């Protein structure tokens, strides 16, 4: 059974930082691209970052470029998202998801972790 478990969310002031983690199990995660997708209240999902298998390629949404960094440690089956210079607009539930690059789909998601940026 595929399981993705996010952690690291919380309340942070504008300009602050958080590091999200996603523990993967039940599949060979190192052979898949992985992603972080967020959903803010009243808005649709937004893919903020993707990392290829092996970690040699990364993509970012314009809204987070130069502030967020995606990485993976395949020895630990863990995906990370380092978020710096956080803004109130970054407030959302953040989900870790498997990304099938050939199909452009996200077949497996975690339960999400809440990130709130507020003073």
Strand order in the largest sheet: 2-10-9-4-5-6
Distance between the termini: 40 Å
Task: Classify the secondary structure makeup into a structural class.
Answer: mainly beta
Shape: globular
Spatial extent as radius of gyration: 13 Å
Give a short account of the largest sheet: 6 strands, mixed
What is the count of β-strands?
10
Instruction: Identify low-pLDDT runs.
Output: none
Mean pLDDT, as a whole number? 95
Beta-strand residue fraction: over 45%
Instruction: Please tally the helical runs, counting DSSP H or I stretches of 4 or more residues.
Output: 0
Order of helices and strands: EEEEEEEEEE
Explained architecture:
It contains no helices and ten strands. With 119 residues, the chain is an all-beta fold. The chain is globular, with a radius of gyration of 13 Å. The strands form two sheets. It has a six-stranded mixed beta sheet, with no helix packed on it.
Topology:
Layout: E1 3-7, E2 10-12, E3 18-25, E4 33-39, E5 45-51, E6 58-60, E7 68-73, E8 78-83, E9 92-99, E10 113-117
Parallel strand pairs: 2-10
Antiparallel strand pairs: 1-3, 3-8, 4-5, 4-9, 5-6, 7-8, 9-10
